[in-house]
Amino acid sequence: MYDINNVFARIIKGEIPATIIYENEYAMAFKDINPKAKHHVLLIPKKPFTHLTDFMKNSNSTEISDFFSTIPIITKQLGIKNYKILSNNGEKAGQEVPHFHIHIISNDD
Ligand code: AMP
Predict the structure, then answer these.
(1) pLDDT digit string (tens) for 29-86?
(2) Where are the alpha helices (DSSP H) in 1-109?
(3) Alpha-carbon distance 86 to 25, whole Å?
(4) Which of 12, 22, 64, 75 has its CA 20 to 30 A from that of 32?
(5) Does the beta carbon of 28 sit less than 6 angstroms from any atom of ligand 1?
(6) Contacts with 101 (C-beta within 8 Å, 6 or more apart), sequence order
(7) β partners of residue 31
(8) 33 Cβ closer than 6 Å to some ligand 1 atom
């Protein structure tokens, strides 16, 4: 069950602040509050999906394609070429915030 009061849901609603670096109809990217590298951005869909499995099973192809297409837009905006993406799928995999997100992490300048 999706928790409508999770921190990313509240960022989407504008209830708590975030350093948003990219946004479109379907997705939003903002700086991780506790960065693990020089660049650490979180990319989230605006619709309520709990984790990657939920997103892939319950969103449509436009939403999926738009979501993943934003990655090169964001990395270009950040000026990074070397990066890794990570998504913790489920609490036991280390997922702390129950709204699907991808970490974009880079130590490029
Ligand atoms: P995960 O463990 O994959 O669920 O990652 C959750 C990430 O969200 C962590 O890297 C946190 O530092 C980050 N985080 C938690 N609260 C906020 C917030 N208010 N703004 C930005 N990032 C956050």
Answers:
(1) 999 999 999 999 999 999 999 999 999 999 999 999 999 999 999 999 999 999 999 9
(2) 7-12, 52-58, 61-78
(3) 23
(4) 64
(5) no
(6) 8, 42, 43, 44, 87
(7) 41
(8) yes
Three-class secondary structure of residue 71 per DSSP: helix
Full-model pTM: 0.97
| Cα 101 to middle of ligand 1, angstroms | 9
Residue 21 beta carbon below 6 angstroms from any ligand 1 atom: no
Residues 6+ apart with CB under 8 A from 93: none
**What pLDDT score does 79 carry?**
98
Show the tokens assigned to 30. 């903002």
Separation of CA 34 and ligand 1 centre (Å): 7
Q: What separation in Å is there between the alpha carbon of 50 and the centre of ligand 1?
A: 14
> What is the layout of strands, in order, in the sheet containing 27-31?
20-23, 27-31, 39-45, 102-106, 84-86
